[in-house]
Please model this.
Amino acid sequence: MATRKIINYTDSILRKKTKPVVDFDNSLHILLDDMAETLEKARGAGLAAPQVGVLRAVCIIDVNNHFYEFVNPKIVSRSESTNVYDEGCLSIKDDNGKSIYYPVERNNRVTVEAQNRFGENIKVKLKGFAARAAQHEIDHLDGILFLDHVKNLPDKN
Ligand code: CO
Model:
């Protein structure tokens, strides 16, 4: 395993849509293993493949000692209820390299359908911070950043 460099949001690669994974081969497993090591080192709650420069629909979540690997994930249902909480991103740091946080509204619960690293279908119901992390990471796969959801974002001049 190896850590990979986490790309900053100023790089346009984070605005691109990912392509689905079709080969569940060793290169996918290496990517997932490297992402896990990178996430652990960065002490984050989740990481999406575009953040390490790979435009494939792959993300991982590590919340409350629960670790998830999602390949080709889709959110298939969401609770109507929402909550607003400060959110950050390993790719969004200020000039001093410190994470910045803004409140974002997310659904309280989501159901994710995805594949695991072997191409088997999985379905996971998530709530609370894990649900928030899943919404955040799956957004990354569509080139969406949490800043896009922030209301009244301060002017960054
Ligand atoms: Co992020």
Summary: The pocket of cobalt (II) ion is lined by residues 89-91, 136, 140 (CB under 6 Å).
